[in-house]
TrEMBL record, chain A:
<dbReference type="InterPro" id="IPR050388">
    <property type="entry name" value="ABC_Ni/Peptide_Import"/>
</dbReference>
<dbReference type="GO" id="GO:0005886">
    <property type="term" value="C:plasma membrane"/>
</dbReference>
<keyword id="KW-1003">Cell membrane</keyword>
<feature type="domain" description="ABC transporter">
    <location>
        <begin position="339"/>
        <end position="577"/>
    </location>
</feature>
<dbReference type="Pfam" id="PF00005">
    <property type="entry name" value="ABC_tran"/>
</dbReference>
<dbReference type="InterPro" id="IPR003593">
    <property type="entry name" value="AAA+_ATPase"/>
</dbReference>
<dbReference type="InterPro" id="IPR027417">
    <property type="entry name" value="P-loop_NTPase"/>
</dbReference>
<keyword id="KW-0067">ATP-binding</keyword>
<dbReference type="GO" id="GO:0016887">
    <property type="term" value="F:ATP hydrolysis activity"/>
</dbReference>
TrEMBL record, chain C:
<keyword id="KW-0472">Membrane</keyword>
<dbReference type="InterPro" id="IPR000515">
    <property type="entry name" value="MetI-like"/>
</dbReference>
<keyword id="KW-0813">Transport</keyword>
<keyword id="KW-1003">Cell membrane</keyword>
<feature type="transmembrane region" description="Helical">
    <location>
        <begin position="33"/>
        <end position="52"/>
    </location>
</feature>
<keyword id="KW-0812">Transmembrane</keyword>
<dbReference type="Pfam" id="PF00528">
    <property type="entry name" value="BPD_transp_1"/>
</dbReference>
<dbReference type="InterPro" id="IPR035906">
    <property type="entry name" value="MetI-like_sf"/>
</dbReference>
<feature type="transmembrane region" description="Helical">
    <location>
        <begin position="93"/>
        <end position="117"/>
    </location>
</feature>
């Protein structure tokens, strides 16, 4: 018998729109299923619904969730409460907000278990040891805010595991963690599940994470399961056009590959569809796709996919294998660096966060700055643009000295150096239309008004593939990816020499990230120099020419991307690379072209 | 919704992990905070004394005119100025006055000639009694009403509560009070005395019937204000992820409400309670005047009407100081909460 | 080789366009009701004096005379026509409240925005001043000054406005500070746009939502404050007619002539409840559509 069986699980909002549509799957004891999807796909709603729980405003309207022979959705309030205590553990996304700040760790660990505190304590200590935390009384007396992020996440995992449930639901538990912590947590999750014979559902937006932890993989989109199967079936021989497209948009740390974005934008939660939910963005869609909702059918590769054209898609995939891109060799030798930084030191409230940073950006080059959280990379980018107050060092632009503070910089410098921010939702003035946003700097730097300004704005927007008909929209009407592109267009309108991109893709879904990365690459082809700050080695590999690795405010390694990421010299870089997960892909040499 | 969340996560992801807070550090912060507040308090109270002085005594000719009336002769004015020291330099006057205030010597009433401190002591006692009883009623009631409204959010109880509190908050105290008097004192039921005269020398609680109506109005106003804050902070907590996790863990509703939610929801309400105490002091002027209750609020109105300058100065300094103390208390409590 | 790209499709925008703030706020029945109440009371107060059958200050009958003799509701404590006094009793309150609100809101917004924008020492100094002002309850400050200077109407307006300013400045500074840290404002600084441009075009439009709520609330407080001062005898002076004053003039005759207290009291209450309905309704709509809880 399966440990967990979910059939026809459906969740709707109060107004009747369906946000999780007919989700079914089964798990055996010890099996881990990775549930992957982009934002708005309904994956987190599924995670909560597995416990018979729906957020305010949403209701579970149908289906069965059978865990250990009990259908949770058929239980009354009190029985459901008992069932949650006994059968299911839940690991939340952000333990910093999910642990009660006013209660001791020990109390929070024991209160969810059957039986008294005394009898449960030995078990708790055992589990705390298993997750690599201290188990003494002093630790149990602490409050959550006295622990680090990684420790909090371990406490949350221990809390779910200690009651020995049949099923554990992980809701994006590693999203806020650094890659090294993430790698350890994922390894631990796999071990705990197999040791304790627990089935697990692991929700994530990250294909690599799901590939690392899941025996089975399920892909969700717009509230529906589009493909499900074993890890190899889904990740190596994807059958559904969406899974294929998603895989192609993921960057790799091993090769500089072109990324293929998915056109269009993902539907809002609860959107209604006539036929296949992906038809509007699908390269293979034909009329019948839009007529009726396709059923999950067995794919030729073994899994199941919700696509009427599975066979056709499989045969007509021209080629799954992408050729590595060559580095751009447009650098003119002998010219001064666009930007040169020497001995940059910066501090926050008397705590020094940057130590003697030095690097150069050659014309037409993209320098990737990589670091984990706390490495000082954001402070560094703020220093470059002059927003940081307390910094010392020497900077030069085009061989001329560059004042450190913004107010000492000339208008020409401000025009030549443009900055794109991480958060696309805050980068644009919410009360100005797209066109106005782009025209503001035109007026400021060139005095362009009226028609002339509009023409230039149109040019800039078209360069970033924002159609002119969106020009009179407000930022709230655009998707995250579109906003980020408008922000880039606004920077381009200034005709800059150097673009500083601060984590510009980290707030975006992977398919949207691909479109922004490709856009930046094409700008680079036009001769724009870039400083690209990120925590993601794979993105650097896709776009960077040279890379600077930051750790705790110091440069630990720098050099050509190819050499640093293929043969890292510093132990820190090696560790970072080893901990960065990678989606397994068919090898370029050995895989055959199907069809 | 979902896209907003990913952005937030992304932002969280790049922010440095918060270092575990240290207890010793916190205690030092608290001590420093209290010292800082104390110094700030002295400076502010000094500012208030200057304002009061400037507004009253620093306008020489006027003071004498106001006290003696328009028909005063030049001789009378000169005599008065001499008696009150109004002919001396302003700075000297101010330091004399401040020295007297600090030593508790508030001068004599111009109306009765008795020392101000003597006249006010009973009034202060009466006002304090009223305020303390009101606070004793307001705190538990606000907690109860706010909690119920939050638990039954968007249901009938909550909606009718919100409607009522919206109306009560908007209605001026004197309007509420007049309506209460009309209903219980004079027009409809006539069960309670419409004015709350406490004979001199009696303690207010010897006349419980006189206290009911002013207390009712103060409590109503206080509860509607405070319970709304309790409700909002309870709703915040009930929607928090840790309460969601507690539900998912299968805990009982009682445990979730009282062990998980209450301590976290109470914290932001405590500073609000002291702010409310401060506003109760200011509001007492209207309530006491309306009911004729012999407290410092009604004393202020009488003193202004009778041009009793030393009384006005003393009462305003007193009220401002009390108001200020509760405000500072709220501030300190709020900062302590945040640092936790 | 790269897999053939799916054909380019026009991107779909599914979300409804966000309506402008005023229209959005007026979708709520509560705000509409509040606005209608406010406007009705304002019109009533302005037009009222012209409709009054008698002079509001003329003694027409014996004190507390019952209805009759052309006096629809009878006479007040001094024998004046109650109807006429009610009709003319709102004009002063209305213009004074609106003027005080406008002055206080403008002053407070300016201080708050400048403090948030300038930061550092300017911010600290401004906020210290605001803190000191906040420790002085409006009504007591007003009584203090009026007791010395006398109850001139403009002084009352200025005093109430000063009473509103510190709270307003705090709220606006609180809303503007997160906006100052937003990326579009930082961007404006990096390209060197002028302070005026940043304040007027980037910051101010982003704080219109709290501003709207605050205007409703402050209007309510102005009316409450001015009416309470009149009630205490420090506002509009007799023999002129004023709702707050009428309540205190006639409260001793409550048993005989309850309407002389009741109607002006309700007039004041309708005014303030209208303001509160509007403010809370707006806060709720804004909270729902902009994701901040109210």
């Amino acid at each position: 018998m399966n440990a967990v069986e979910v059939t026809g699980l459906t969740v709707a909002l109060d107004d009747g729109s369906v946000i999780v549509d007919d989700v079914s799957f089964a798990l055996e004891s010890g099996q881990v299923m990775g549930l992957v999807g982009e934002s708005g796909s309904g994956k987190s709603t599924v995670a909560l619904a597995l416990l018979g729980f729906a957020k305010r405003g949403a209701n579970i309207v149908g289906g069965k969730v059978v865990v250990g022979g009990v259908d949770l959705l058929a239980l009354g309030r009190n029985e459901l409460r008992e069932a949650r205590k006994k059968l299911i553990g839940f690991v939340p996304q952000d333990p910093a907000t999910a642990l009660n700040p006013a209660m001791r760790i020990g109390t929070q660990l024991t209160e969810g278990m059957l039986g008294g505190r005394k009898e449960n304590l030995p078990r708790i200590r055992e589990v705390l040891k298993a997750v690599g935390l201290p188990s003494d009384d002093a630790f149990l007396r602490r409050h959550p805010q006295e622990l680090s992020g990684g420790q909090q996440q371990r406490v949350a995992i221990a809390m779910a595991v200690s009651k020995g449930p049949k099923l554990i639901v992980f809701d994006e538990p590693t999203t806020g963690l650094d890659v090294s912590t993430q790698a350890r947590v994922l390894e631990m999750v796999g071990r705990l599940c197999s040791d304790n014979g627990m089935a697990a559902v692991f929700v994530s937006h990250d294909l690599a994470v799901v590939g690392a932890v899941g025996d089975l993989v399920t892909v969700m989109y717009a509230g529906q399961v589009l493909e499900t199967g074993t890890r190899d079936e889904v990740l190596l021989t994807a059958a559904h056009p969406y899974s294929i497209a998603l895989l192609e948009s993921v960057p790799s740390t091993r090769q500089r590959l072109p990324l293929v974005p998915i056109p269009g934008r993902s539907p809002a939660a609860g959107a209604k569809f006539e036929g296949c939910v992906f038809a509007d963005r699908c390269a293979y869609a034909e009329d019948r796709c839009r007529e009726a909702v396709p059923a999950l059918v067995t794919a030729p590769t073994g899994g199941a996919a919700r696509c009427v054209r599975v066979e056709h898609v499989r045969q007509n995939q021209t080629c799954q294998v992408k050729e590595p891109l060559r580095r751009i060799e447009s650098r003119e030798e002998g010219r001064a660096s666009v930007l040169s930084v020497r001995n940059l030191n910066a501090s926050y409230d008397r705590t020094q966060v940057l130590f003697d940073l030095s690097f150069d950006v050659a014309p037409g080059e993209c320098v990737g700055i990589v670091g984990e959280s706390g490495s000082g990379k954001t402070t560094m980018s703020r220093c470059l643009i002059g927003l940081h107050e307390s910094q010392t060092g020497v900077m030069e632009m085009d061989g001329k000295p560059l004042p450190l503070r913004l107010r000492d910089r000339s208008k020409a410098i401000k025009q030549q150096m443009q900055y794109v921010f991480q958060n696309p939702y805050g980068s644009l003035n919410p009360r100005e239309t797209v066109a106005t946003s782009v025209m503001v700097p035109l007026k400021h730097f060139y005095g362009d008004r009226g028609k002339a300004a509009r023409a230039k704005a149109q040019e800039a927007l078209e360069r970033v593939e924002i159609p002119w008909r969106l020009a009179d929209r407000y930022p709230a009407e655009l998707s995250g990816g579109q906003r980020q592109r408008v922000a880039i267009a606004r920077a381009l309108a200034c005709d800059p020499k150097l673009l500083i991109c601060d984590e510009v893709t980290s707030g975006l879904d992977v398919s949207v990230q691909a479109s922004v990365v490709e856009l930046l690459r094409s700008l680079q082809n036009d001769g724009l120099s870039m400083v690209f700050i990120t925590h993601d080695l794979a993105v650097v590999r896709s776009i960077g020419d040279r890379v600077v690795v930051l750790s705790q405010g110091r440069v630990v390694e720098s050099g050509e991307v190819e050499s640093v990421l293929s043969a890292p010299e510093h132990a820190y870089t090696r560790g970072l690379l080893a901990d960065t997960l990678e989606v397994d892909r068919p090898d370029a040499e050995t895989s055959e072209v199907p069809g | 919704m979902a896209t907003e969340m990913t952005t937030k996560q992304a932002i969280d992801a790049v922010e440095p992990v918060k270092a575990p807070s240290r207890r010793r550090n916190r205690r030092a912060t608290i001590a420093w905070l209290i010292v800082q507040r104390g110094l700030m308090g002295v400076v502010t109270l000094w500012c208030i004394s200057v304002i009061v002085f400037v507004a009253t005594q620093a306008m020489p000719g006027d003071v004498a005119h106001i006290i003696l009336g328009a028909g005063a002769t030049a001789d009378q004015i000169a005599q008065l100025n001499k008696n009150m020291g109004l002919d001396e330099p302003l700075l000297t006057q101010y330091w004399d006055w401040l020295g007297n205030v600090l030593t508790g010597n508030m001068g004599n009433s111009l109306v009765s000639g008795q020392p101000v401190s003597e006249l006010l002591s009973e009034r202060i006692f009466n006002s304090a009694t009223l305020t303390v009883i009101a606070m004793i009623l307001i705190l538990p009631l606000s907690l109860l009403v706010g909690l119920l409204a939050a638990v039954f959010r968007d249901r009938f109880f909550d909606r009718s509560y919100l409607g009522t509190s919206l109306v009560v908050t908007a209605t001026p105290d004197f309007v509420l009070g007049s309506l209460v008097i009309a209903v219980f004192g004079t027009v409809v039921f006539k069960v309670l005395p419409p004015v709350s005269l406490i004979p001199p020398g009696d303690a207010p609680w010897q006349h419980p019937k006189q206290l009911i109506m002013p207390l009712a109005v103060m409590t109503l106003v206080g509860v509607t204000y405070l319970s709304r804050l309790v409700r909002v902070s309870f709703i915040d907590v009930l929607e928090s992820e840790y309460v969601q996790l507690a539900t998912i863990k299968g805990l009982s509703t009682r445990r979730i409400l009282f062990r998980h939610a209450l301590p976290n929801a109470l914290a932001p309400s405590i500073p609000a309670a002291s702010i409310m105490a401060a506003y109760t002091i200011a509001g007492s002027v209207v309530i006491e005047y309306l009911f004729g209750y012999p407290g410092i609020g009604s004393a202020l109105v009488d003193a202004v009407a009778g041009h009793d300058l030393p009384m006005v100065q003393a009462i305003i300094m007193l009220m401002a100081a009390a108001f200020f103390c509760f405000n500072q208390l709220a501030d300190v409590l709020g900062t302590l909460n945040k640092s936790r | 080789m790269i897999r053939t790209r799916p054909r380019e499709q026009g991107e779909q925008e599914v979300q409804a366009p966000p309506k402008n703030l005023t229209r959005r706020v007026l979708t709520s029945r509560q705000t509409r009701l509040g606005l209608i109440m406010l406007l009705t009371m304002i019109v009533f107060a302005i037009v009222g004096p012209f409709l009054a059958p008698h002079s509001p200050t003329a003694v027409m009958a014996k004190p507390y005379a019952p209805p009759g003799d052309g006096l629809l509701l009878g006479a007040d404590s001094l024998g004046r026509d109650i109807v006429s006094r009610i009709l003319s009793g709102g004009a002063n309150l209305t213009w004074m409240a609106i003027a005080a609100t406008a002055l206080g809101v403008a002053l407070g917004t300016t201080i708050g925005l400048v403090a948030a924008f300038a930061g550092g020492i300017v911010d600290m100094l401004l906020m210290r001043v605001v803190d000191v002002l906040l420790t002085f309850p409006t009504i007591i400050m007003a009584i203090l000054f009026i007791s010395m200077v006398g109850p001139s109407r403009w002084i009352l307006v200025v005093l109430v406005a000063i009473g509103l300013t510190p709270g307003m400045a705090r709220v606006m500074r609180g809303s503007a500070r997160p906006v100052m840290r937003r990326e579009h404002v930082m961007w404006a600084r990096t390209v060197g746009l002028s302070s005026r441009h940043i304040l007027m075009r980037e910051v101010l439009p982003s704080v219109t939502s709290p501003l709207m709520v605050e205007i409703g609330l402050r209007l309510m407080w102005s009316v409450v404050g001015l009416a309470s001062l009149s009630f205490l005898g420090f506002g509009v002076q007799p023999p002129a007619s004023d709702w707050g004053l009428m309540v205190s003039e006639n409260k001793d005759g409550l048993a005989i002539q309850p309407l002389a207290v009741f109607i002006p009291a309700v007039c004041v209450a309708l005014f303030t409840i209208g303001g509160n309905l509007f403010a809370e309704g707006a806060a709720r709509v804004i909270g729902r559509t902009e994701g901040t809880r109210s």
